Amino acid sequence: MSSHREVKATLWTRNFVLLSTANFLMFTAFYFLIPVLPVYISSELHGSKSMVGLILAVYTLSALLIRPLTGAAIDGLGRRLIYLVSMVVFSILFNFYILAGSIVILLVLRFIHGFTWGVTTTSGITAAVDVIPPTRRGEGIGIYGLSFTIAMAVGPLLGTVLLEAGNYHLVFIAAFLISLAGWLLALQVRYPIYLPANGGRISTRKMLEARAMPVSLNLLILNITYGGIISFIALYARELNIANPGYFFLLYAIGVAFSRPAAGRIFDRWGPRWLIGPGACFVISGFMIITSWKSPEGFYLSAVLLGFGGGVITPTFQAMVNNLIEPGRRGAANSTLFTALDMGIGGGMVLIGFLAEITSLTVAFRSCVLIALAAIVFFFKYAYPHYKKYHIPATAPQV
Fold first, then answer.
1. Contact in structure between 60 and 226 (CB atoms under 8 Å)
2. How does 274-292 read in b/e, with b if 16+ C-beta sit within 10 Å?
3. Fewest beta carbons less than 10 Å away: which of 107, 144, 338, 390?
4. Which one-letter DSSP state was computed for residue 101?
5. Could you count the other beta carbons within 10 Å of the beta carbon of residue 193?
6. Domains contained in the chain, CATH given
7. Among 220, 226, 230, 225, which Cα is nearest to 67's?
8. Exposed/middle/buried for residue 28 (C-beta within 10 Å: 0-12, 13-18, 19+)
9. What confidence tens digit (pLDDT) does each residue in 166-213 have?
């Protein structure tokens, strides 16, 4: 049993605040381009809709490819080096969008930018877990995650405002400056030092962490539903004659923001058993409402419910993975989880698109109910028993 002092361990340290703020600024810069880049590709570079989709997708693909190697590098070379180098390169690359005068150049740029995104996000969460007290890991990860939830709400809005006030170059430069400000904050962090795994070498044989696999696979299954919703919600809104689907993402972010801190506290006190089932039920309710109550009210209510589900599920799985391994393997564990997350989102884009093509978006979204139910079964049959057997108690020495 944890002592009173351990339970009340300080979460809001200087390092935690710096890392969370740096992450918020980096994600805000990333989300600047979400509404701007498709318009830039089609209007300035005269790219087709399929080319827009390809350029956006290649970013996720390159991030997915680099994550396993990132985990090995974090554990072998340390968090600080990997995080700071990847973040400053990520920031600088925003300037190159100004020079991307063709589809081919932009495609290559997005591929390279995706590499830095994959490295920065994986090393960032690993560094954050290092500075969060083990007894408050669930709450800390939930609050750290709010930094990109808030960025998801304000980034697209600010990007659009800047575009209306100036031109595309202004958006790219602003993204560079905001991300660079995040890097300057990350420079001030005092990163805990752990003995490097593999004698300080990058071991390609240990890029992924086997102990994180069941939990990561569970997240992959649930993120199939998320991949479908973010890819096709705008098209579904058009079918329902809803003028501004952008509010869906704002309400989704609000749902995440409200559920994340509470979910973290519940995790630290009672564990994941009381979170994944209810979280998946929020997701199921959201998809049932959006496909049955075909009105603006149902559309926006589903966004809040889906946000609640996402705000519970993702940080819970992150905390579970980090409770399964010692600090020297956190990089590999987090890269395993994020690889599964990317694969789930990408798989959802493909699967829901295929189902929508042969049936309808309504049927495709209803299939997400079955996917979420399958995730609940998988959790209680495989992921949770694995966690109970192998998790490291918060009171164990963190060496």
1. no
2. ebbebbbbbbbbbbbbbbe
3. 390
4. -
5. 10
6. 1-190 (1.20.1250.20), 209-391 (1.20.1250.20)
7. 220
8. buried
9. 788 999 999 999 999 999 999 999 988 765 555 555 555 567 788 999
